[in-house]
Amino acid sequence: MKKSVLLATVLIFGLGMSSCSKCYTCEAPVEITTSSGTTTEYQEEDFCTASPQELESKEADGYKCTNA
Asked: What is the per-residue DSSP string for 17-51?
């Protein structure tokens, strides 16, 4: 009985780990205005998530994300 409970616990824990997060490199344009004009640079950050909605939200904010 103890082995069955242990096996079930390990199996449930293993299935929970199957939705691992994926990491992306995301960049967004940033306009910098100085006295000599405006230039565009890119802000880059690493982003990890298991939720497709979080990635879509990041891209809706202007980031372009690629798999890291």
From this structure: TTS--EEEEEEEEEEEEETTEEEEEEEEEEEEES-
**What's this model's pTM, rounded to 2 decimal places?**
0.61
Compute the distance between CA of residue 20 and CA of residue 16 in angstroms, rounded to an integer.
Answer: 8
Residue 65, H or E segment:
strand 64-67
Question: DSSP code of 61?
Answer: T
Per-residue pLDDT of the chain (68 residues), as tens digits, is 655 544 444 445 444 445 688 999 999 999 999 999 999 999 999 999 999 999 999 999 999 999 98
